[in-house]
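User: For documentation purposes, I need each entry recorded in a consistent format: the amino acid sequence on its own, followed directly by the corresponding structure tokens. There are two entries in this batch. Please keep commentary to a minimum and don't merge the entries.

Assistant: Recorded as requested. Entry 1:
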Amino acid sequence: MSAPFARRELTVASVRRLGAYHVLAVDDPDGQAPRAGQFAMLAAKTDWGGGEDERPFLARALSIARRQDGQLLFLLEDVGPGTARLCALAEGERLWSVGPLGTGFSDPPQGRRALLVGGGVGIAPLAILQDQLSGPATALLGFRGAEHAAGATLLAGARVATDDGSVGHHGLVTQLLEDELAEDPAAVVFACGPAPMLESVRALCELTRTPAQLALEAPMACGFGACYGCVVPRRGGGYLRVCLDGPVVDAAELERVDAHAGSPA
């Protein structure tokens, strides 16, 4: 269930570095508990917008990475003006939040092992998913290199793959997934990451007839289905709104994962 579409003013508890990422902790003791896979639309209360053209920044859609001790945690990478401002927040500063929004992950069938497959900043919703699962789960995470691989510490016992071989398996995280599915064809896959990774996961799960849920990401202006700016094509025709019908969708609903429907690597 999503929260009411009203923004709330919250206080930053801390911002800490985690390799190439920042972990933003926000005090929200009275907020609605999120389901793994849901997100919030965040904007700094001050200095939100500017530059040569003085353009405003739309709020940024960020997956909720964890809820603990009355705080919400978000995993960010400085990839543009909006995320740069959020990464620069300091303890005690205020921000606007709308959320939790969207459709989260569904629980795996009883007794079936969950494979959590993440790439880059897309590991965020898998951290809270691991917290909420009661059954067995294996985390498989892929990164560009060692600095980004530091993010793997958000999940317990994760197996890591890096593009440059600096940490863990030298290669793609989907290679780790192939091995796991060969050993346990009854597993269920939960994935979030860059679009090429998600497309590889989708195609592999279709080939092996493995149930899979994919957490998509797309540029969002509103976060609750009004603007239709985040649509992706649905298998058989029509479109899905990532913010409302997702961000978590059944992989079987997609013919493919579009290039814009994934998180930064």
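Entry 2:
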Amino acid sequence: MHVGAANNGGLATRSCEATLSWGAQTVVVAPGTWEVDLDAFGVDLGMGAPVAAFQVKKSDSECCTTYLLYSLQKPPRLLRTLTGGSSFRASDIDLDTRVEIWTDDAAALDGFENLAGSEFDSLPPVVLRFEDNRLLDVGPQFQPHYDHLIAELKARFEPRDLKDFNSSDGRLAAGTASTPERMHRLRRVKIGVLEIVWSYLNSGREKEGWSALRDLWPATDLERVRAAIVKARERGVHAQGDGVAPPAHKKKRATIYDLTMSQGDQSEVVSPQPILLRRPPPPASQLGVARAETSVDLIIDSAGKVRSAESVNSIDADLIDAAMGWKFIPAQRGGQAVASRTRLAVSAKR
């Protein structure tokens, strides 16, 4: 597998592509695109075969990326294409042996109510999972995650601003008789209300979502905006799915194979391999100063994403923050991706 710049004969045009190769054969995945990122490799997404998952952005002006899922059987073939999210990330955040795809509804929200997607503080997540080759919305199984997000959003409201927004027409159209400062405050409230409603809807709680809308939106504009939300969601990420999964009962915890020890079943596990490791530069005061290696203990889920990171022999908060964004080909046991604990030595030298 290779992801990188395409050979276009010059430097005037930014052009990237990815290829999958086996033996003397090659499949070009994303020719002539603005940006290509390998999100996951060798991961079981519930599609009957391990996959390579690519994020592709055709131009810098696009709000969203396309998620291409290729089987790693020979020859590789495109299994599914997902669109409409600002980004996609396969991970098993609760370590229950099942991998979800985390994205958002960027295409539906960009331009909604004349608001740019970049104005939203945190686009409410959409959580998807393949089960028997069916793409299910599993947001209802992650309600605590949404509850935390909703609580943070509500805490940002200033009572005066919320009261002013409730007294507005809801549309906040350009040219409305109001000072720029007041209009900015009202737009921030409007965005927060939409994020709260979308969070309830994305977690399978329509009743609570529409109740929040009634409580927080101007009553004179309520029916209009509710109809607009329904219409926007119909063209969003959810429209590509095959159904909604019910709330989960007790989840099964994944076995985490400890590769820092070589005993028992651990000897049968192939260690995770890095896809992307970015190390923060040392502070300016330490540039050019030799430093010892730092060992970092990582828990890597079966999608190759870091679930926790801990320094073994030093304290380096910047390194730990960076490590949480690292990506790996996950550990393998018997041809299946598994969660693992591994130790990585990181040098501070350039």
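Summary note for entry 2:
The chain has three domains: 1-90, 92-253, 256-346.
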